[in-house]
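[job 0412] stage=fold_complex status=start
inputs:
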Amino acid sequence: MIAPAILPARGAGDRLTGLFWRRPAVLVALLILPPLLWLGVIYLGALAALLLQSFYAIDEFSGIVVPEFTLKTYAELLRAQNLDIILRTALMAAAVTLASAVLAFPIAYYAARYARGGWKAAFYLGVMLPLWSSYLVKVYAWKLILAKEGILGWAASATGTGFLIDGLLAIPGFEGSSLSTSPFGTFLVFTYVWLPYMILPMQAALERVPASMLEASADLGATRAQTFRTVVLPLALPGVIAGSIFTFSLTLGDYIIPQIVGNSANFIGMAVYQLQGTAGNIPLAAAFAVVPIVIMLAYLWLAKKAGAFDAL
Amino acid sequence: MKTMKLMATSALAALTGLSPALAQVTELGAGEGQVNIVAWPGYIERGETDKAFDWVTKFEEATGCKVNVKTANTSDEMVALMNEGGFDLVTASGDASLRLVAGKRVQPVNTDLIPSWSKVDDRLKDAPWFTVEGTHYGVPYMWGPNVLMYNTEVFKEAPKSWSVVFEEQVLPDGQSNKGRVQAYDGPIHIADAAQYLMAHKPDLGITNPYELSDAQYAAALDLLRGQRMLVSRYWHDAFIQIDDFKNEGVVASGSWPFQVNLLKADGQPVASTIPEEGATGWADTTMMHAEAEHPNCAYLWMEHTLSSNLQSDLAVWFGANPSVPAACTDGSGMSTKESCHDNGMDDFDRIRFWTTPVSKCAQGECVPYYRWVSDYIGVIGGR
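[job 0412] stage=fold_complex status=done
writing structure:
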């Protein structure tokens, strides 16, 4: 006996399969709904709530948030002391990003183009290893290293090079009683902590630069410097930009490092942390939180204009 | 969002006015088998951190009430947890207690049901941070001063005034205090400055460091701007301060007995004092949730906090002062007359306990706390 070509449906599972087969759009909708909800409601919704809060203001008299639209909070954000915080944070983020890029490029370049086999694994491990230990432990360790009576100070006084540290700490803007209380110390720790986030995307981008293009460039008579400038760098730029987005935005948002290392001057994250607590000044905290978003959008727009994403 | 909820409740409280009309428990029944407590870290120990410090096990054995502890790191967290509900008790500090009362999150406590209430320090019995219009919203738990910690190698004698951390001067070891002193990295430090001005600029007319007019407030900020020049880093975390005294050459700072005890235990040359201007301090209260599900166990616990080894041992553990004076001498725990004295037991009258500055105050209108926050951020930023 020959079995019929079409079997009767054997329950809900079969009927569901039939539905998906007849209407593929239903399946797509079902699959995409949870991530869409996540992105839309939890992710963007939270951002929207934040944005909304920043347009409220705190009542001067009672200290209670008044849920009415006003730009008063943004006016407050532009007060000199708050502008100081924004400027300080942005400058630090820019400095950390630049330093990370300069430090990361040779490392990423070597790891991507020259390291082979075991060495390559060692490079990956070396870059990733610091990410596996606790962030707090690393920051506290740096606090000790940079302390007045820490190992750096000890080494400097033992070798008679203490004047180098003193000289550094005398530079306007870097003042402090030791490296660990100086903004320069904050910069060092930021750079250390975020460096892997710069190296990894850079390395990925450099690995994708085809060797044939370098050969072609050499065949056409370009010097090494020319090849680097006109072939390697433009092709690797998306990686550099990706890395800089990490280091820049991570520095913009961090509030723990400047609390432990540095001179206690506030960064955006610290200000948000303080304002939302007992102060209950949620609107100003929200306005502060909008600042990194604006800075990052401006940064991405500039990067796009500069052609950073052309090679994508 | 937690804070939003909090704002909502305080707004509601402001709208409806403060009318403490909640019923209180009139008689106790049998324990319900458990009690849920929101507490500061280290406040409720069952011998798991250190075998010698246990004030839970015996209570559980005697009453059959299992103690569940949820620790909270800030007063705001405590208020938020209490707003969410599901807890019976909270160890609220002075900056949270009145907010909890105003938000109707806690209920009046019937002191007749707590036999050891009579043993509570008379100085605390009607303290304004948990007593509203004669109604008690809890029982005192612990209190402590913010002391001046100093390095004994630099200061052969205890500094007599807070001026060592407020004004530039040559310390007894012949060097300037610049870069060698610290201050607390919280806006409430403005109150310390105001307290200093109470003694040194009486014409400002400050009577309460938490209630400052605009002019008094401006003077305090000026003092703090001068202090910024002396301080290379403000302290926020007790362990960072401990490290700074060890490795950063810091020799004087406002501090808690907690850090002093830890540094002393580590063999560091430090001591603490309460200078002539007095000091600020904190006082915590065990408060009971308005909708506590386990009221009998909650009452049993409140009695236990006052009658057991808790007061005496916790005072040693935390570097704080018991709310039951007898705990210093009755041998119920490790406290002694000396240890209590070191923690500031005899300095109660010189301590102005922390309360959240609000705009409505005795002299009419005062600078509210949210301005303290934004301005202190400015001061630390060098403005």
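[job 0412] summary: The mean pLDDT of chain A is 88.
[job 0412] exit 0
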